[in-house]
C-alpha cells in the first residue's frame, strides 16, 4: 500500500493528498500516518509547501467526514433505536443507551468531535454519531477542522523533519493504533457478554 500512496501523491500532488485523505476517512485502513508525513517530506524537498500540504490534507479529511456525517444524519435516531430493539445484543446498546448518549453528545458534542479527530482508529467514526444526533453542520465542520488541522499539521511537520525517513512515523504510530483497536474490541466483547437486553425508557 505504501508504494501506491507514494505514487499517487507523486503523480497527483495536492489533489492526490485530498483524494487519499478523503478515502482514509471513508476506508480507515488507508493510513493518514503515511499520507501526511509523505506530503511533509515533499514539502521539505520543495515539491509542495507545508501550508498547502496541511490545507489539502484537512480538506480531504473534511470531505470524508461530511460523507459519514450525512450517513448518520440519514439513518437518524429513530431508525437506530428500532434497529437496537432488534439487534441490541450485538450492537451492545439499547434504546435507553441511545437516549443517554444523545444527551451526552448534545452537551459535549464539539469537544467529542475535536478530541476524536486526534485519535487513530476512531477519528473517522465520530462523524456518524454527530450526524445521527443532528449536530449543527457549521459546528461540526468547525470542530472537525480544528482537530483535523492539528493532526494533519503534526504529521506534515514530522515528515518535514524526518525527510526521506518519513515512513518511520508509521512504525511508531501503528502499534498505538493497534492497541487502541484491541482495547475497543475487548470492550465490545465485554458489552456483548454483559448485555441485558433492550430497555424502553
From TrEMBL:
UniProt keywords, alphabetically: Cell membrane, Membrane, Transmembrane, Transmembrane helix
Keyword Cell division among UniProt keywords: no
Keyword Protein biosynthesis: no
Cellular location(s): Cell membrane
Organism: Lysobacter arseniciresistens ZS79
InterPro entries named in the record: DedA_domain, VTT_dom
One matching Pfam family: VTT_dom
Main location group: membrane
Taxonomic lineage from the root: Bacteria, Pseudomonadati, Pseudomonadota, Gammaproteobacteria, Lysobacterales
GO cellular component, one term: plasma membrane
Protein's UniProt name: Alkaline phosphatase
VTT domain residues: 30-160
Amino acid at each position: 500500500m505504501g508504494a501506491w500512496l507514494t505514487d499517487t501523491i507523486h503523480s497527483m500532488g495536492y489533489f492526490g493528498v485530498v483524494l487519499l485523505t478523503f478515502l482514509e476517512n471513508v476506508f480507515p485502513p488507508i493510513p493518514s500516518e503515511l499520507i501526511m508525513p509523505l506530503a511533509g517530506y515533499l514539502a521539505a524537498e520543495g515539491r509542495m509547501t507545508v501550508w498547502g500540504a496541511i490545507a489539502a490534507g484537512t480538506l480531504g479529511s473534511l470531505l470524508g467526514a461530511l460523507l459519514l456525517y450525512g450517513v448518520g444524519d440519514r439513518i437518524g435516531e429513530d431508525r437506530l433505536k428500532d434497529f437496537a430493539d432488534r439487534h441490541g445484543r450485538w450492537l451492545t446498546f439499547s434504546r435507553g443507551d441511545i437516549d443517554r448518549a444523545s444527551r451526552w453528545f448534545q452537551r459535549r458534542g464539539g469537544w467529542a468531535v475535536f478530541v476524536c479527530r486526534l485519535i487513530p482508529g476512531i477519528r473517522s467514526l465520530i462523524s456518524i454519531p454527530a450526524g445521527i444526533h443532528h449536530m449543527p453542520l457549521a459546528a461540526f465542520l468547525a470542530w472537525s477542522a480544528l482537530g483535523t488541522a492539528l493532526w494533519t499539521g503534526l504529521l506534515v511537520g514530522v515528515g518535514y523533519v524526518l525527510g526521506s525517513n518519513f515512513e518511520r512515523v508509521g512504525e511508531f504510530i501503528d502499534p498505538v493504533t493497534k492497541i487502541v483497536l484491541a482495547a475497543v474490541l475487548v470492550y465490545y466483547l465485554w458489552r456483548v457478554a454483559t448485555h441485558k437486553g433492550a430497555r424502553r425508557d
